[in-house]
Design a protein that fits this description.
This protein has 327 residues and is mainly β. It has one domain: Neuraminidase. The protein has no helices and 27 strands. Strands 1-24-23-22-21 form a 5-stranded mixed beta sheet, with no helix packed on it. Strands 2-27-26-25 form a 4-stranded antiparallel beta sheet, with no helix packed on it. A 4-stranded antiparallel beta sheet has the order 4-5-7-8, with no helix packed on it. A hairpin with a 5-residue loop joins strand 21 and strand 22.
Length: 327
């Protein structure tokens, strides 16, 4: 196992709960990190910006265009035209029901300002209609949305959901499209139960070359715990899997590592995993590591750690990893 040479860069202080950060790189090269400082049901989403590849960061500031509270964080996606899509959901409840409403906002200026929030046209409301991974852009106005309780296409122009591929539910996992047009899904099971239940029909990842109509089983990805792993297509056609390493006989996350596929997601180099974070103890919280490509030479992985053992307390972090670590 190789290891990154760079130490974690502390971005911001956090408190506890569903910090669940999202990460993307803007068309101008800035990095955006969006997160909750505290929650189950945070009062606001905070945004930090880095103009130097994640080495230094702006002071966290709330995204003022979001008017709801009780926020469960979502994801960031840079669309093909350069706009940034921000997803999140909000908790609601009545005396006998609980549900989440997913919403989105779009920035046309690299995350400096955002459009008014818009809710997705959800029918059959559920407490599991939430999304923690970027969408896949099918066209200028159509996206694949991997919600926890449904995997659907969304036509933003018509404001309606459609069926993606074979109509199966992949769960709240990453789905990406490679440079060749293949789709890779992080689905741990062939049909994801909601909520996640006892393992059955384990596939440990799926790959499709016909737009999701049929899927090949990968049996490549590690254990899917309460927090999700990540998939990142690279400019050169490779794909990176951001893996969470769990304790053996001990509950919890203990390290994060990057695993490379050089053949369009068919096979994965688990023996050459690059470790990006291992504090030598259990990682506090559910770190939700997220990886983006900075340039041809460097990757960046964002996560949080709530352990009080840290000198500065719970924090949000980024690690830069050289592509040379995979050689």
């Amino acid at each position: 196992m190789s290891s990154t040479e760079n130490s974690p860069i502390r971005i911001a202080d956090v408190i506890d709960g569903h910090v669940h950060p999202a990460l993307c790189r803007t068309e101008d090269g800035d990095l955006l990190a969006v997160y909750n400082i505290q929650g189950g049901g945070g009062k606001e989403l905070l945004l930090c910006r880095s103009a130097d590849g994640g080495r230094t960061w702006s002071t966290p500031a709330p995204i003022s265009e979001i008017t709801d509270d009780s926020i469960y964080p979502g994801s960031l996606t840079r669309l093909q035209d350069g706009r940034i899509l921000l997803n999140w959901s909000c908790y609601y409840k009545s005396a006998d029901d609980a549900w989440r409403v997913p919403s989105y906002s779009i920035s046309a200026d690299g995350g400096h300002s955002w459009s008014p929030q818009k809710s997705y046209p959800v029918t059959g409301r559920s407490n599991y209609t939430c999304m923690r991974h970027p969408v896949v852009e099918l066209s200028a106005h159509e996206w694949v949305c991997p919600f926890y309780d449904r995997t659907v296409s969304y036509d933003a122009q018509a404001d309606r959901f459609g069926t993606f591929g074979d109509g199966g539910n992949h769960g709240m996992v990453p789905i990406v499209r490679t440079n060749s047009g293949a789709f890779i899904s992080g689905a741990p099971q062939s049909q994801a139960p909601v909520p996640v239940g006892v393992g059955g029909n384990m596939v440990r990842g799926l790959r499709s070359t016909d737009a999701g109509q049929t899927w090949d089983t990968l049996q490549a990805f590690g254990h899917f715990g309460v927090a999700g792993y990540d998939l990142t297509p690279l400019d050169n056609g490779w794909v990176v899997f951001t893996s969470i390493v769990y304790g053996v006989g001990v509950d919890g996350e203990f390290s994060y590592e990057l695993i490379l596929s050089r053949d369009d997601g068919r096979t994965w180099e688990t023996g050459g995993a690059v470790e990006v974070y291992n504090p030598g103890r259990r990682i506090g919280g559910r770190g939700w590591p997220r990886t983006v490509q900075l340039d041809g030479d460097t990757l960046a992985t964002l996560f949080y750690d709530l352990s009080p053992a840290q000198e500065q307390g719970p924090g949000l972090y980024l690690v830069r990893t050289s592509m040379k670590a995979f050689c």
